[in-house]
Amino acid sequence: MGVSAGPATVATDPEAWVAARVCGALEAVFASVAATRADTAALLERVAAEGRRPASRDLAALRPGLHRRLNREELVSGVGFVAAPGLLADVPAWLEWWQAGADGAVRPLLLDLDPGRSAYSDYTHWDWFTLPRDTGHRAVAGPYVDYLCSDEYSLTLSEPVRIQGRFAGVAAADVYLRHFEAAVLPLLRRLSRPARLVNARGRVAASADPAHLAGSLTRGPDFGELLTAGRPGGYDGLRLVPCPGVPLVLVLA
Fold first, then answer.
1. How far apart are the first and last CA of the chain?
2. Of 178, 209, 244, at which residue does a domain stop?
3. Which domain holds residue 172?
4. Does the pTM exceed 0.85?
């Protein structure tokens, strides 16, 4: 059972129209991620030009921009930079991460990252870290219960940060699943077939199909490969429509 490709246009295909609208819902979040990536890369370049390794205190310069993004973007619940282990001179790991509370106040995420005491000291196995590191591209991870930051069912959107050709960490933003579902479920319900959105790992990010709940896995083709190709296709009776520019696939039963 292979993946077959077929043409589709937003103008003539309601499925492609929905995929494009999903893309639009997430592009504002990815714009915040991209701005964080650009600010972080510029900061690390300045530190490198001084002939030294960066330290955690240097990352405080990112905070005004992170605060603006939290206050501006409705879907963004948390945003920041997660350093690759060994990047910083003074600590083995670091998250320069800020969150919006229920009261609207912006607060830092304070974690104990001591590997001798903390279960969170190694964050390099999470999809939001490994996918951008390994592919060099943006990623949508989850949904998952975000025990690291909020204890909320969340998605994390991320992009790699590179400095002088080397991976330095990821810029990322969190979106609560309930907010994402409020934005995209009305779109999925407009389609004539049960529909869900899956990420590059095949995990369901949102679903209007009662047979496939958010967080479950969709067995099928290599969704990462399908996203790279960027063309609609089919697999074992499923209709597969990549969301343009965003690493999610619209899957129709």
1. 16
2. 178
3. 19-178
4. yes
